[in-house]
Amino acid sequence: MQQWLAFLVISSLYFIKYNANNKEFIMREFEYVAPKTVKEAINILGSYKEKATVLAGGTDVVIRLRDEIIDPEFIVDIKHIDELKGIKFDKKEGLYVGALATMHEIENDKYVKEFYPYYGKACGHVGSKQVRNKATSIGNLCTASPLGDSLTPMFCLDATVVIEGPKGKREVPVREFITFVRKTVLERDEIVLGVKMPYIEGLKGIYTKNARRHEVDLSNIVATICKVNDEYRIAYGSVAPTPIRLVKTEEFLKCKTINDKMIEEAKAILVSEISPITDLRATKEYRISVSQSILENSLKALNS
Q: What's the pLDDT at 288?
């Protein structure tokens, strides 16, 4: 079996791969650019277009370089743009997560802990501690994987993605931002500034991740289920090409008294809304069963 070691050498502007079978190093040269402002980054991306890849935390970009999924001529490092940093909150505007806020920062933010604990838990389930100190939730969003760990809380809250490009700023509902596996509405000369999530008085949420290991593993199923008053918000990942809201299941549960009969009916509706696949991590049947169990457990916990 072919084995690879990979690391990024920023100072020398090389991506170096080691092929253990052939015992040889392969060096891929690229140009490294580090803009200091959003405007500068947009101008650079406008010039390089498809030849450029944005680097923030780098936890996904380095892996995609290693696996030759991407082969950029330019790496545009946005880590030095101060206006992309930070987390803000007030009850009127809600939570704003800057593009460079790391999973560790989000997980430990006092406002996230108090008002969005399920989002903090989601960020706390990403990779290892070392990864969480680098990885960003907005990077997780822009990767547009159906199993992105930190995405289902955004979907439950009807988050808004704030984007800037040469034509100015625009805002896109998170459910419209991801269009397919690793596909978004983001143009080549645009960057995501951050994500806005509203504050909803009385909302309770439960985040669940099913994986083979407790840490440092991809999700078989990931879900966030919220309740506010007599209404529910249900978002799942890894059951369709994009994270999804289960709107039929939500509508069925609205204003219902939760008992065993209602839960069984809701589980049947859930199956009609998801389309999981069989892959190396889990079978379709397993994902359906786990999805139903997550719904049942979450509904019982939210109504206990």
A: 98
